[in-house]
Amino acid sequence: MTLNELETLAELSLFELLKRSRAVHEANWEKQEVQLCTLLSIKTGGCSEDCSYCAQSARYSTGVDAERLMSKDAVMENAHAAKANGSTRFCMGAAWKGVRQGTKRFDDVLDIIRGVSELNMEVCVTLGEVGAEEARQLRDAGVTAYNHNIDTSPEHYPNIVSTHTFQDRMNTLQHVQEAGMAVCCGGILGLGEQAEDRLRMLEILSNLDPQPESVPINVLMPMAGTPMEESKAIDSFDLIRMIALARIAMPKAKVRLSAGRTDLSKEAQAMCFFAGANSIFYGEKLLTAKNPSVQRDLELLETLDLKPQAPFADVPKPPAAACVASV
Question: Could you give the CA distance from residue 166 to residue 164 in angstroms, rounded to a whole number?
């Protein structure tokens, strides 16, 4: 979608916007299912980047200690537990600038991925920047989706990160799509952005070809010790509107209600699901941040007559890539 089209939608009244997003959702997602995704930090802290919202940056005193890569056995134990709890996607995150072929840590990660891929869940990783060859090796090991959020607009991005560029993010997305993995890519609300920055972010995402398979919409959870620890809370109606706009702009994408759900009421989450969200991170921890309990989530889904996505008979393959939009 174009920025002008998104601006026109954003000017609609809340109820009119929800009416339109709900119609798009029902036209593309017949089953009232919600995908349950488990996110595990397999390597926490000590990151060299200066993302101003992140507690894992080594540049800030946040109380998050740098840890080594988890053992394969420990990761597999978590993956088995995630599958037993109903997750159909297992996401693994590592606090690195990126990975490079031929290094021990990359080889170790590939070995972990091979193990998890045998559980017949979708395998998603977020490891920072990857080149073309690294992306191919990740795909061959069993990665079905690569998470690499663009966070905000290209114009606002330099205000929150200085150690890499917005184009660096886009380059990684291009390598991921060309390697045949699906793109999991979204952003964060509450980074000091303007309304136009949010729409520009959606414009960039919606013009990826193919569009992202999943779009996480996060609300900043201010972390003590980071430059954004005093950031103002985001109004839940702003989040609901973003969910609705993302659903209209990317009809076939799973729109994931992500970080920040601990501060949302049940009613606000219900409106997000109505607006088009059909995926959540499931489990009591998101990397270093809190998340609602498993029982609380299951009770909410039952109340809303929503069902967890059924386990896969065969993990779906991502669509072939055409090109990545330039900025």
Answer: 7
Looking at the predicted structure, is the pLDDT value of residue 25 above 80? yes
Which domains does the chain show, CATH number per domain?
Answer: 3-306 (3.20.20.70)
Active-site residues: which are they?
47, 51, 54, 91, 124, 184, 256
The answer to whether residues 208 and 177 touch, using CB atoms and an 8 Å cutoff, is yes
Q: What is the mean pLDDT of the chain?
A: 91
Residue 309 token pair: 């996505």
The pLDDT tens digits for 5-15 are 999 999 999 99
Least confident of 78-92, 154-168, 172-186, 290-304: 290-304
Q: How far, CA to CA in Å, does 279 sit from each of 8, 18, 152, 179, 321? A: 26, 18, 20, 25, 23
